[in-house]
Each structure stands twice: as C-alpha cells, then as structure tokens.
Amino acid sequence: MKIELKKFGTTLISRQNGREAFAALQSQLTTLGEKEDMELDFEGVITFSPSWGDEFLTPLVKQYGNRVVLMNTGNLSVKATLELLEKINQTSFNIRF
Amino acid sequence: MTEELITISEAAEILGVSIDTLRRWDKSGKLKPIKISEAGYRLYYRLQIELFLDNLFNLAKNWVLKNNDMPPNFYCSNSAVFQTRLTQMQDTLAKVADLSSIFPLIIAVAGEIGNNSFDHNLGNWPDVPGTFFAYDIHKRNIVLADRGLGIFATLKRVKPELNTDQEALRMAFTEVISGRAPESRGNGLKFVRKIISENPIGLVFQTGDAELILTKESSKLDIRPSTESFRGCSALITF
C-alpha cells in the first residue's frame, strides 16, 4: 500500500496535525494485507518536522515495524527529522533509496 | 544608550553571519563598526548590533515585557493561525534563489519553536494566549515570542530537580527526553540546535532571565544571563 504524505499537506509541522493525520490514516489501514508493506512517500512534502513525525511515524513504526517503508526522503527537513526520530526512539527507519 | 563594545566575532555571532560578511558590510557601508581599536580591530556597540537586527524584535520584546500593542497581522491567537502564516512564509522563502535547498529547514526551525509555545501553554496561558510571529525577508530574520509560562516552569513539571532558567534552557536544547510522561513532550529544540549547527542559520533564544545564542558550528551552548527578564519565550532566527 502506498501512502502519499503530501495528501496530508506539504507543511507537516505540528503535533496536533500529526495526530489528526494519524487518526485519518486508520481508515485506510483496514485494507492493508497482513504481510504487505506500507510505503510512505515523501514526494511533494516541503517541510517536515519532528513534532508531526513523532505523532505520525513513531506509532506506525511501533505497530508495523520494518513494513513501514519510507520513500523519496531527500528533502533536507525530511532527512534531519528522520535522523532525530531515529535517535530519540533508538531505532532505524526502513528507507528505500 | 548602552555603550558596551563588542568584537567583530561577537557581533558576527549575534547576527548569525560570518566575520567575512561583516567585513564586507563594513566596506559596502551596510554596517560599519563604531570604531577601530588601537590594534586595528573593528569594534561595535552591542546595542547597535541588536538594533540592526530589526525593529521587529523590539516590537516583540515590548509585547512580552510590557504587553504593548502589536500589529494585528503579527499576532497568532492559536496554532491554526500560526500554521497558516508559517505556510505563507514558506511560500515566500521558496522564491528566494539562494535559499532553495535550506528554506524547509528554516521553516521547520520556526515551526518547532512556534508550536512549542502552543503545545506547552495550551490551557495554561497566564494572560494573553498565542504568539507574536513576524519576519523580514529583506533583513532575513524571523521573530517569535510568547507570554506563556516559559521553559523553566513547563520543564520543572517533569524535571523537578531544575532550579534556574539557565539550567532549563540548557536541558531543553541538549537532553533528549524520551519518556514523554506525563505529557507528550517534543524534542523540537534539540532538532533546532542540530539544524543550526549544520547550516547558515542563527538563533537568539530567551526565556526567563536566560539567553542562548546558537550559530553554525557552535560546539558548546552559549547560555548567559539576559539583560531583561520576562516570563515567556522569545526567538530571533537569522538566515
């Protein structure tokens, strides 16, 4: 399943919006296969910050582990945020280059 | 006028620019030193540098210190207003050619600082809720301020061992707090520090009676007592 993050907005910065996006995603996840990957595509996202990421990515990775695959992570704010979240949560994201 | 003299390196640090940039500004007349020392070094008044930064900062300062009026378009009463105006700033910065790769980082830094004000004061604003948020694309700076509880009061709830504004400010910018109890607490200011240490962005951050100056390649945190104390937080981002 591929999820285009830009559909949640191109400026992904606050905890509140991250929580809302996570809640909105739940209805889509009902169709995710048991072993299917969840591809999160950052294409089109302009600004991404740890607050949003912590409310959205952290719980997804906690639940689905390495099945959460991150794509198009070249934007500097995406890169920096992913690095910080990895450090905070002492984990590493499954990034597809 | 305070006549405290500072060196070119101190002036560069406050402005978030390189010493070479200040030398160029001297030659071009954009910002000239107050005098040259006997040894030939450029010297500036601290206040001269602070005023150069912007009047926006003074407007913010007078709001947090004295509850003076501010232009309505600088006031974000809630996080939705802040988010909208931040997105507008993003669109403006995106058009500046030499910021094309780093503007998302500038927005992320401003976003984390501004959202902190809302996240940590929601339901607890002592008087006026919301933030001051203004930017000057020509002078290349962003000013954020709030009349909230300040970092010391909010962090002390989860770290009772804290005793001063300076200790709280240091912890906010250095210690990764992963427990997050009892409230969802971000690590946004650690992110801000990391971004600034790797990019040509400067920050002057004040809370209570403590002030922090961060610039690219700041190896240690420069935290000092501030000249005036106030309850909330203020930030000046230069780029």
UniProtKB/TrEMBL annotation, chain A:
Name this polypeptide is given: DUF4325 domain-containing protein
Species name: Candidatus Yanofskybacteria bacterium RIFCSPLOWO2_01_FULL_42_49
Automatic annotation (TrEMBL), chain B:
SMART domains xrefs: HTH_MERR
Residue ranges of domain HTH merR-type in the record: 5-50
GO function terms (MF aspect): DNA binding
Source superkingdom: Bacteria
GO BP term (any one): regulation of DNA-templated transcription
CDD domains found in the cross-reference section: HTH_MerR-trunc
Pfam families xrefs: MerR
Gene3D superfamilies: 1.10.1660.10
The protein, known as: HTH merR-type domain-containing protein
